[in-house]
Amino acid sequence: MKLIASDLDGTLLNEKGEVSRGNVEAIKSAEEKGLTFVVATGRSYDSAKRILTKAGISCPIISLNGATAYDIDGNLIRSIPMDKAVCRRIISVCQKAEMYTELFMENIVLSSGKDDFMNVAIQMFKDAMPNSTEEEIWQVVEQRFQDENVQVITNLEKVLSSENHEVFKILGFSLDERKLTEAYNELKNEDGIIITSSGHLNLEFNHPNANKGLALKEYVDNLGIEMKDVMALGDNLNDKTMLQEAGRGVAMGNAATEIIELCKYRTKQNTEDGVAYAIEEMLKEYHL
Predict the structure, then answer these.
(1) Based on the domain organization, do 13 and 65 belong to the same domain?
(2) How far apart are CA 184 and CA 272, in angstroms?
(3) Is the pTM of this model over 0.90?
(4) Domain count, the chain
(5) Per-residue pLDDT tens for 222-247?
(6) Can you say how many angstroms the Cα of residue 20 is from the centroid of all Cα atoms in its chain?
(7) What gap in Å lies between CA 288 and CA 70, rounded to an integer?
(8) Active site residues
(9) Cα separation of 71 and 266, whole Å?
(10) Which of 93, 119, 247, 266 is deepest in the core (most CB within 10 A)?
């Protein structure tokens, strides 16, 4: 193995949304042995960078599910925006399904309404942090809106008329899984869209070429590394292409069933330093 690629939420990050000391030490150990570490996330670059910097990790970042990618110095090296007409279609379907919706630009996230997100967030964060109070969840939401530079706008479609605004990802949330299914079925055969998910309450929309697998392969090709020498770790459907492309795809212990069935390897849960365990097992197997 020559390179390790890891998802963030549900994978490298624990239930507090932080990188544990055990995971940090395992990553540093792999890097000392000559391996490259890369993060591949659905988050924006700024959000991912802030978390990694806090943990003392400096690495290339594939962000927004592969729509953008940055080298270790923060230089943009990949940019795959969505077609504006496709974005309008997605927004229309999400609005019809009464879904909370966000548009991800390069440096800003536009939200259909903070209160709407809060309604979803209460359930979402209670699943991840069952012992949290509503006040603590509010604080997490407030922090997310700051970290992702989220701004509320009453008319999401209106911003698409500006040539200066490129959309790299659209994220839709709903507490009603039937509405998510209806929206998925209405859009699944549309040209110019790939639909994934990072949790059971959301749908994520990107350009078909904006996926973690393609972005990761493009990055390692430029390094002269073959995908057979890559270990990738993930937990949900937006990690699927990356796990399929990698020579060693590792499913987290908390991964979605489809991801567990897809991967030959499985590690512990994200709350149990699963990334560290997978790295340590790989290093032992390859006598590194």
Answers:
(1) yes
(2) 33
(3) yes
(4) 2
(5) 999 999 999 999 999 999 999 999 99
(6) 18
(7) 28
(8) 7
(9) 28
(10) 93
